[in-house]
Amino acid sequence: KNQVEQSPQSLIILEGKNCTLQCNYTVSPFSNLRWYKQDTGRGPVSLTIMTFSENTKSNGRYTATLDADTKQSSLHITASQLSDSASYICVVSDGTASKLTFGTGTRLQVTL
Amino acid sequence: DSGVTQTPKHLITATGQRVTLRCSPRSGDLSVYWYQQSLDQGLQFLIQYYNGEERAKGNILERFSAQQFPDLHSELNLSSLELGDSALYFCASSEGQGYYGYTFGSGTRLTVV
After folding, report:
1. CA distances from B60 to A42, B81, B100 (A)
2. Percent of chain B topping pLDDT 70
3. CB 3.0-4.6 Å disulfide test: which of A11, A60, B48, B61 passes with A97?
4. Which DSSP state fits A40?
5. Is there a contact between B42 and A49 if contact means CB atoms under 8 Å apart?
6. For B6-56, what is each residue's pLDDT tens digit?
7. Parallel, antiparallel or unpaired: strands A56-59 and B103-104
8. Reduced to 3 DSSP states, what percent helix, strand and coil does chain A have, rounded to the nearest 5?
9. Which of B2, B40, B45 sits opposite A100 (nearest CB)?
């Protein structure tokens, strides 16, 4: 069964600090891995999409890594801001719309 | 504003009733996807339409149905509503089959009482 597991479930950090969120997946076949940011009560917003051949992709202060051999991905947030408070969702695709596998997300809270 | 418009934003209705959720995709996008997100759960894929035709179906209940119209907007119909149908319903759109990702709308929060 395809699964995406994210850790930690929740995280509280001080503004300005860095953090790393983890995603482990067992999805086959693998097409791409996506990280989304979802503010409370809002729709997910895409941060990065990585295919099998990519191992790092950045979007501003967000840097995602992918190790397709170990089936692990991480999302690193640099110099966190209060506006980074949200859920971060890891999604793995096998290339078909009906078979996207969503993680349940890591809820990040950035405090003063 | 993502360009994907969902209406209404909030909906409160009683058990047994029927509701219709509406989605207008981003300009130029042919695919529309519907997702359900229950409290503290991951997004669950319901159904995909591409240029008016059903393309993929997920764990959509028989009480639920959807369609995509010639102007590419889509509607999700939920009938015989139960308390457990209370959730956020998201629509997403993509230009093609979504290989490079989707654009999500802000969702419709449905509360069944």
Report:
1. 22, 13, 24
2. 100
3. B48
4. T
5. no
6. 999 999 999 999 999 999 999 999 999 999 998 877 888 899 999 999 998
7. unpaired
8. 5, 55, 40
9. B45
Q: Chain A residues with CB inside 8 Å of B100's CB? A: 49
Q: Which two tokens stand for residue A11?
A: 């995280």
pLDDT tens-digit readout, A93-106: 887 766 788 899 99
Tokens for A94? 């096998």
- How far does CA B2 lie from the centroid of its chain? 15
Residue of A43, A93, A100 with shortest CB distance to B104: A43
Nearest CA among B54, B59, B51, B62 for reference residue B94: B51
State CA B102 to chain mean position distance: 13
- Distance of CA A5 to CAs A22, A27, A102, Å? 8, 11, 9
CB B19 within 8 A of CB B13: yes
Contact A41 B109 (CB under 8 A): yes
How many residues in total does chain A contain?
112
Strand partners, B12: B111
B42 vs A43, A98, A103: nearest CB: A103
Distance of CA B55 to the CA centre of its chain: 14
